[in-house]
Amino acid sequence: MTYRxxxxxxxxxxxxxxxxxxxxxxxxEAGLDELVEVDxxxxxGWHEGDGADPRTVAVLEDNGYAGGHTARQFQPSWFSRLxxxxxxxxxxxxxxxxxxxTEQDARKVRLLRSYDPAAGGDLDVPDPYYGGTxxxxxxxxMVEAASTGLLAAVRKDVEGRVA
Length: 163
Fold this sequence. Notes:
The chain is an alpha/beta fold and 163 residues long. The protein has helices at residues 15-29, 54-62, 90-99, 103-106, 133-162, and strands at 3-9, 36-42, 84-87, 109-111.
């Protein structure tokens, strides 16, 4: 049975596609790509059908990541097929939990940086959209740092299913 993770930010062109691409690479490196499916979406549909922001693409490519992306809006009906819904900031967390059809679905929603022990109390990944490349690089650093802990949690869940 496939374990499914969806990363969610506002428009699905900056933070969530970055997290999707980085985490998919981590899953592949761990040899779990046959067991774990990774995608992303936005809380809104403003950019639906667009590719990732060019600055997202550039920062990812500069750091050895590849992968295409088409923005889409998160749908409440997806909760039934997802195991984890990873919000990039507390605003997304609240919006997603309000969209959840059941309490069980609401419990699937987590903040990405909650998987980074060094994050401390600041669990939001700032939106880099209105800034320069440095904001996208900072976003990548946060995503990579949290991906290690997220991968450990997903691996544990996947192994629990197989055992």
